[in-house]
Amino acid sequence: MLQALPFPIRQECPPGACVCGRDGLLDALETAPETDVRILRLTREEEKRLIARIEAVASYEELQHMTARMDQLLGMVVSITPSVHGVRTVRGLAIELAERPGLCRKTRQAIPAAIRRCLDRHPDIVYALLNARDLLGAA
After folding, report:
1. Are 55 and 118 in contact (CB under 8 A)?
2. Pick from 83, 105, 84: which is nearest to 17 by CA?
């Protein structure tokens, strides 16, 4: 089935190092061709390019566009939510990727870390993110 995919896919992680479910996703593709395998497009090289691109984000609008494109192209849903106790630093933001088969553990850690580094360099994005929330904390 690997030959039937029209794009290069991420190499498998070493056994026991990750619980991404890549092989299960590929097996599901054989039984159900409509299985969403967009996440497999994120090869290690593409992940490095994505992280560099995230770190280069300079505005809140650009960050929103980037997260929307990640969802559209790879099926990765990024959520950035402020703590209910207030935000004094970037650490007060919860940055998470939604759980999904095929999403590597390292990627699940690297992308939020890249977003955090971007927000550290551009506090105005954090202020815009907080201003986008209403008084009750809903988006």
Report:
1. yes
2. 105
Rounded CA separation 81/84 (Å):
9
* CA atoms in the 13 A half-sphere facing the CB of 105: 10
- pLDDT level of residue 1 (50, 70, 90 thresholds): very low
Confidence (pTM)? 0.84
Strands (E), 1-139: 78-82, 93-97
Residue environment code for 68-98, b if the CB has 16+ CB neighbours within 10 A, otherwise e: eebeeebbbebebeeeeeebeebeebebebe
> For position 136, what pLDDT does the model report?
44
